[in-house]
Amino acid sequence: MQPSLSKQGQGTFTVPGSQIRVDHLSRMIATRAKKTVILDDVTFTVPAQSLFAINGPSGSGKSTLLNMLTGIDRPSSGRVIFEGQELRAMSEDGLARWRGKHVGIIFQFFQLIPTLTAIENVLLALELGGGGGLKRREWRQHALKCLALAHIKDLADRMPSALSGGEQQRVAIARALANNPPVIIADEPTGNLDSRTAHQVFETLSSLRQYGKTVVYVTHAPELAALASARIDLLDGRIVDSYQAQAIIAAPPQPEAHAVGGDLEKPGVNDPQVSTALPPRGGDAK
User: Fold this and answer.
1) Other C-beta atoms within 10 Å of 49: how many?
2) pLDDT digits (tens, 9 = 90+) for 100-111
3) Which domains does the chain have, with CATH numbers?
4) Residue 86: CB partners within 8 Å, gap ≥ 6?
């Protein structure tokens, strides 16, 4: 039987070094008219039991990268390695089974089943994931424990329509914990909440590290990215900065040369008023 959720040092529950390695990952969509690059040669590591941020503006490739980490989408090239397993090598059925046991997903818009109560949403996830190694008679107690971790146990029997946005997101967190996965992945988990509720929900997510979880979250808010223990910053599908992520930083784009009096002149090279020094590159070395 799978051990119950408890704080490290206060019970038997621990997660072995869960770690994700992304190697030279690219994703592109090609049509007859053009080729669109969504992710461009992305390499980084998610440390075990970290609070890991994927930060960047809209259109930078954040959600596509999350889909790669969860095996929902497949890369055009490169690989995602999860605890020694390469996701690309798995079949679709194998990925679905793997996802049910290893990853809990939290969506921006909650995605709760509206006809089920809070605890029934958690129980459904438990059933779809194979029961988390528990006997069926233990499921309800386990679901209540997950709701308690998300600070929503008192509202276990309420329908989603009777819950606020923050309360629904807490139920979604409890559902993600149902099968005791080592990694929780959240796509803009506070993006649909007011600032006060967003802060409370983020604190709940962050606290899951006490239970041995690795939490990966997408955000476009610099203040939330700054709270991470490790992070990457994406822009136009490339990593432009990182912290504690063993990332390869993309080289800055080179300015185009232009003709002056028949000769090619590069901006800054022939202009004494413009410095030719390269700006410092971001990265893990601080």
Assistant:
1) 23
2) 889 999 988 889
3) 20-253 (3.40.50.300)
4) 79, 80
